[in-house]
């Protein structure tokens, strides 16, 4: 059992490392928002599972780890959303292979020309 | 929601009456409570949809965890190995969700999945703008996103 817990901890640490590497490697601020998601989902998941297995046994319910997970799963998308919104507002440039400036502008202005956007993305496929 | 609360109360009552606060006993009490609610759900309007919703919610949770694992694997492999398939960009996704709560849930779960991030909702709440890491196969991405959305709506409605 202890080996299993240790393996889970190492797995979690690897996911955190991966997220760190991802933040360095990605090119623009929007992609960098994707970088922490493996750490905050699978990394924290493995870490909390390890904590749960270490603390709990058959006779006790350890709900604390579940609560930590629930709070993280509710708060992390909201902070990512606020950061993305800020980046849009500041008109930070998009880097990468496929840019659709029109959709970018639509998102910034919160306009919905969904038919137009669909057409545009169909053309560029 | 109220059905879940009732079920939790029944599980708690079972644990109190048997005086055993072990994980196994609480789970047993919960399933007993589920059976009781299933027996009376036709006569109580507030509980009517609950017996159908609990298995749906559980199966959605399993589906979502599986999606998380697959997407995490994809993102992790792309970060670590040399040929990069990354093609970041923004897509506009038409929303089937209507109320604010549904839209918030869909947007948050899309953000939680690695590789996709919801950026903004249009003013008329009909389009969700999603930033994606892998736009090389846009049709597949759209299909995945709308499958997640459909499953959330199935649980909520």
Brief characterization of the structure:
Chain A has 125 residues and is mainly alpha-helical.
Explain what you see:
The complex is a heterodimer of chains A (125) and B (157). Chain A has one domain. Helix content of chain A is 76%, strand content 0%. Chain A has 6 helices and no strands. The longest helix of chain A has 26 residues, at 64-89. Chain B is mainly alpha-helical and 157 residues long. Chain B is 62% helix and 11% strand. In chain B, a hairpin with a 5-residue loop joins strand 2 (116-121) and strand 3. In chain B, helix 3 packs antiparallel against helix 5 and helix 4 crosses helix 5 (138-156). Chain B is elongated. At the A-B interface, helix 1, helix 2, helix 3, helix 4 and helix 5 of A face helix 2, helix 3, strand 1, helix 4 and strand 2 of B.
Outline the secondary-structure elements.
The complex is a heterodimer of chains A (125) and B (157).
Chain A: H1 2-25, H2 29-34, H3 37-55, H4 64-89, H5 101-109, H6 114-124
Helix pairs in contact in A: 1-3, 3-4
Chain B: H1 2-18, H2 23-40, H3 50-80, E1 89-94, H4 100-112, E2 116-121, E3 127-132, H5 138-156
Antiparallel strand pairs in B: 1-3, 2-3
Helix pairs in contact in B: 1-2, 3-5, 4-5
As for the number of domains of chain B, it is 2
The mean pLDDT of chain A is 78
Summarize the main sheet of chain B.
Answer: 3 strands, antiparallel
Structural class estimated from helices and strands of chain B: mainly alpha
Largest interface by Cβ-Cβ < 8 Å: A-B, 51 and 44 residues
The span between the termini of chain A is 50 Å
Q: H/E element string of chain B?
A: HHHEHEEH
Oligomer: heterodimer
> What characteristic shape of chain B results from the CA principal axes?
elongated
Helix content of chain A: over 70%
Helicity level of chain B: 55-70%
Low-pLDDT runs of 5+ residues of chain A are none
Number of strands of chain A: 0
Order of helices and strands of chain A: HHHHHH
Strand content of chain B: 5-15%
Number of helices of chain B: 5
Radius of gyration of chain B: 20 Å
Low-pLDDT sequence parts of chain B: none
Using the alpha-carbon principal axes, give the shape of chain A. elongated
């Amino acid at each position: 059992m202890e080996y299993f817990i240790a393996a889970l901890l190492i797995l979690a640490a690897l996911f955190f490392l991966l997220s760190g590497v991802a933040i360095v490697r990605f090119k623009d601020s929007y992609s960098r928002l994707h970088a922490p998601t493996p750490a905050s989902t699978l990394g924290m998941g493995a870490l909390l599972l390890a904590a749960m297995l270490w603390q709990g046994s058959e006779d006790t319910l350890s709900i604390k780890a579940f609560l930590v997970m629930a709070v993280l799963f509710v708060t992390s998308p909201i902070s990512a959303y606020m950061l993305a919104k800020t980046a849009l507002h500041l008109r930070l440039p998009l880097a990468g292979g496929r840019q659709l400036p029109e959709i970018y502008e639509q998102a910034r202005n919160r306009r919905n020309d969904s038919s137009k956007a669909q057409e545009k993305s169909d053309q560029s496929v | 929601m109220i059905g879940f609360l009732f079920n939790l109360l029944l599980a708690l009552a079972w644990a109190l009456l048997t005086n055993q606060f072990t994980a196994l006993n609480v789970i047993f009490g919960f399933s007993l409570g589920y059976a009781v609610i299933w027996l009376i759900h036709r006569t109580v309007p507030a509980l009517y949809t609950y017996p159908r919703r609990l298995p749906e919610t559980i199966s959605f949770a399993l589906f979502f965890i599986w999606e998380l694992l697959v997407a995490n694997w994809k993102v992790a492999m792309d970060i670590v190995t040399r040929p990069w398939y990354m093609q970041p960009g923004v897509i506009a996704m038409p929303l089937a969700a209507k109320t604010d709560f549904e839209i918030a849930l869909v947007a948050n779960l899309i953000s939680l999945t690695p590789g996709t991030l919801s950026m903004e909702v249009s003013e008329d709440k009909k389009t969700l703008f999603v930033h994606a890491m892998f736009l090389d196969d846009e049709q597949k991405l759209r299909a995945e996103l709308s499958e997640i959305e459909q499953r959330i709506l199935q649980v909520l409605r």
